[in-house]
Amino acid sequence: MAKKSMIERDKKRQRLVEQFATKRAALKAVASDQSVSVEERFKATLQLAELPRNSSATRLRNRCQLTGRPRAYYRKLKISRIMLRELGSNGEIPGLVKSSW
């Protein structure tokens, strides 16, 4: 189980990303548009830098929904490999069969 503080920190980052997504996208579009004047692009870059750092999507970390484990995460199932194995062994994931030969 991951530390509660790390799980909560990621939840806070997720909220910030959702809150500033449209503003961040608009400023990025202006900053990368070559048809806009250099002053406007520089101004957009400065405004982008003033946004909270945690509002950037690159700061998000995929975590297991059940344990909060940050590594060995399966995107499709949103759980870690350890929980996948445990749930699969218990027969709680449809279609997952333990291999034996």
TrEMBL record:
rRNA-binding listed as a keyword: yes
Classification via Pfam families: Ribosomal_S14
GO cellular component terms, semicolon-separated: cytoplasm; small ribosomal subunit
Lineage top rank: taxon: Bacteria
GO BP: translation
Record has Ribonucleoprotein as a keyword: yes
GO molecular function, one term: structural constituent of ribosome
Keyword terms: Ribonucleoprotein, Ribosomal protein, RNA-binding, rRNA-binding
Signal peptide: none
Free-text function comment from the UniProt entry: Binds 16S rRNA, required for the assembly of 30S particles and may also be responsible for determining the conformation of the 16S rRNA at the A site.
Family the UniProt entry places it in: Belongs to the universal ribosomal protein uS14 family.
Subunit structure: Part of the 30S ribosomal subunit. Contacts proteins S3 and S10.
NCBIfam families for the chain: PRK08881.1 (NF006477)
Name of the featured protein: Small ribosomal subunit protein uS14
Species this protein is from: Rubellimicrobium rubrum
